[in-house]
Amino acid sequence: MRVLIIEDDSLFAEILQTFLEDNNCTTLVADSIASAKLHLQSSIFQFALLDNHLPDGSGIHFIDFLKNELPHDKPLPVMMITADENQNLMLEAFEKGADDFLVKPLSLDLLWQKMQRVNSLYQKEAQLAEQAQHLSSLLNKQEHEEQLARYVYEHVASTLNTETECVDTYIQSSSSFNGDVFICDTAPNGNRFVILADATGHGLAAAISILPLVATIKAMIRKGLSLAHIVHEANKKLCIELPDDKFVTLIGVEINFSKQKLDLFNGGMPDIIAIKHDKTLERFASSSMALGILEPEDFDPGIVSMQTHSVSNLFFFSDGLIEQQNPFKEEFGMARVLDVLEKNTGKEGLLSQVVNHFTVFNEMEELQDDLSICDLQIAALMDAHLYQKKQTTLSNTGKLCASIQLEGGLIGTSDIVGCFDSLMRCADVVGDMRQRAFTVFAELISNALDHGILGLDSKLKNDYAGFAEYLMLKEERLASIDENERLEMHFEFNPKTSEIAFSIKDSGKGYEVKGTGEMDDDSLSGRGLSLIDQLCKSVEVTPPGNQTSVVIKREF
């Protein structure tokens, strides 16, 4: 400890100096206030012993300088030592900032104990100040990081709901970040997807868990993949990227307008409630594990299919709705949701009714979890799709022809289906025609690659339990695809005849053409052509069965 002794009694100053240096202190003596100032300007001290009676002034009036006017930032502990046994003087010294007070004659051992105690308090205060500054720095850094994360999250969230027609949603976060996410999008084949995902917990950690899933799902919708395929790939991605104690529950709905069919997936979420036209309710409980828990080979999506004509609305939500507790610790519960839906008169929207009942029940309590609700109006959506205005303006001149050949590993890694859709969009092919062409093209490409080149058995896809095996085998065979394998495509669009013609040929061994009557509507296994026949003006399979040519004509 470096100590400044401000004392005009040279003998007493020498006694203090000797004692302190014996206790491993470094000392300097100033016999006046002026001398003390010179030392303080040239050196830094950790302690000051101050006499009150000095040749050029009172020590008590020098305290303010020692406490507030030194050139360095760290405060200087000051102890007054005086022969004045005056309580008023002692009180004034403490008011001006003295840390302790001793009256001469004094015990040197007591002096040392007091100095150590005062010095210890200053060190603790300095440590606390440093910790507070460090904490403030961390909080500022965290705030900046949260602002950046919030910007990224809000930007991503704003791109999720590209289709909002007949889809009413209510989203409320329990913190700055939402661990629930809605995705509403239409695939190039015209199928509509509505997906609600809920990550473990809430806040920033939950939001981070959900963002990788969003990009995967959006990409697969753009490729025209089915709900079963999307769920499988999402589960696989989360198994790889999420810690063992994290998972994502999810509800997925795929609406196939051409087949007038709904596919439903419920993985770990509360029941999906189907409201029929006769006002009765049908519940679809979770039939699968949440995503990110089971390995792909053990995961069964448990897709449920139903016809759209029997359903008026699909109502579903995250568990933040039914698990929220009011001030009396009562949960909102599924029974209250069902009661509101059963008593619905149609005068007010389903979503508004449930939210209003929830708000009254909750009595302004903070949300314990993120809350998301969706009312998917199936009947209204089907009507809107049926009677939507078709595009009538179409160029009647020119012709577009394109040929592409893929070989070897590029067959599996190229997004040829997306390329085909972009080609149609560039040529302003009208929506309904483009959707049918995309569906046919995607099915034929899938058949040519999966069954023609890779030799996969399509019967695996007839059982959802085998779907994972099918995807794993496909991934393995794509990784070792022979460089001599080929996939040839030719595309023609003729605005004059309002027709699209394309042919697809693979380097596989071909197959035996089956009659379309032998195929199920929902199956193209074994390269069945029933769906393709329904969507095309003509279908021709060239022996030995590894080339298919189709013509699609616009429907007016």
Q: What brief labels describe this structure?
A:
Phosphatase 2c, domain 1, elongated, 23% strand, 556 residues, five-stranded parallel beta sheet, five-stranded antiparallel beta sheet, single chain, Rossmann fold, 22 strands, alpha+beta, 3 domains, 16 helices, Heat Shock Protein 90
Overall shape: elongated
Average pLDDT rating:
85
**What is the CATH homologous superfamily assignment of the largest domain?**
PPM-type phosphatase domain
Distance between the termini: 96 Å
> Helical proportion?
40-55%
Radius of gyration, Cα only, in angstroms?
39 Å
SS field, number of helical segments: 16
What is the CATH topology descriptor of the largest domain?
Phosphatase 2c, domain 1
| Spatial strand sequence of the major β-sheet | 2-1-3-6-7
The CATH architecture assignment of the largest domain turns out to be: 4-Layer Sandwich
Number of β-strand runs: 22
Query: β content, as a range?
Result: 15-25%
CATH class value of the largest domain: Alpha Beta
Taking the sheet with the most strands, its summary is: 5 strands, parallel
Structural class: alpha+beta
Number of domains: 3
Given as residue ranges, the uncertain stretches (5+ residues, pLDDT < 50) are: 515-527
- Please give the oligomerization state of what you see: single chain
